[in-house]
Amino acid sequence: MEPVDLALVLALDGSASVTYDEFNLMAGGLGAALRHRAIVAGLLEGPAHASLGAVVLWSGAGAEDVLVGWTRIGSAAEADAFADAVENVPRTVLPGLTAIGDALVAALALLETAPAPARRRIVDVAGDGRSNDGIPPGPVRDRMAGAGITINGLCVLHEEADLLETYTREVIGGPGAFAIACPDYAAFAAAMRQKLAREIANRPVA
Fold first, then answer.
1. Region 85-93 average pLDDT
2. What CATH architecture is 4-199?
3. Does position 157 have pLDDT exceeding 90, yes or no?
4. 44/170 Cα distance (integer angstroms)
5. Deepest in the core among 44, 72, 128, 165, taking most CB within 10 A?
6. Where are the alpha helices (DSSP H) in 8-159?
7. What is the CA radius of gyration of the chain?
8. Are 32 and 145 in contact (CB under 8 A)?
9. What CA–CA distance (Å, rounded) separates 167 from 159?
10. Quick one: average pLDDT of 66-79?
């Protein structure tokens, strides 16, 4: 496969703190964000005019599943097909504790099997709780950042008001890393659109 501008892993929280209705809002909001004109343009505007996308669902330690494998996005039609796949992902892992470190390990393994070299590699972690199971996220984050991988966060604050601070301290890292927050899952689509627009920009944002 030809080189791409961006390899993006979208890592979604499937732990017990996320109800099935909230999970549907998260998947639907992500699909809607990926269809936005500015997001599609961002995925296609780099020198290679193409990106790769994949989706991982995570919960407790050892509970991760690749819901959408690596998909090349080299046209508006391919972007729309990827959004369709994301919007309709099933909840395949059992709701459990919150193992963000294990989720990062799963994302790293997926990046290491990407079918094409990428100019930038980004992991987009979305969730509503701090890590309370499995390996600590900090050391994994540091290893990934050292390899030039960016980890960004989207924090849903309806259960933990200080989650943005927790993600900033323990989860995000790498070139241009950032985290943003939204108050609840009803606001997830707009927040994800804002986040994707920032992270797929052709240059990292400090």
1. 93
2. 3-Layer(aba) Sandwich (3.40)
3. yes
4. 31
5. 128
6. 20-35, 37-44, 76-87, 100-112, 137-146
7. 15
8. no
9. 14
10. 97
Return d(Cα 181, Cα 169) in angstroms, integer: 14
The answer to whether 121 touches 93, Cβ cutoff 8 Å, is: no
What was the pLDDT predicted at 43? 96
Q: Cα(21)–Cα(152) distance, rounded to whole angstroms?
A: 24
Residue 94 banded pLDDT, cuts 50, 70, 90: confident
The residue-averaged pLDDT of 11-37 equals: 95
Size of the chain in residues: 206
Three-class SS state of 181 = strand
List all residues 6 or more positions away from 55 whose beta carbon is below 8 Å from its beta carbon.
Answer: 9, 10, 11, 12, 30, 66, 67, 68, 85, 86, 89
Residue 109: C-alpha distances to residues 19, 36, 98, 143 (Å) = 27, 29, 19, 13
The full set of domain ranges for the chain reads 4-199
pLDDT at 206: 35
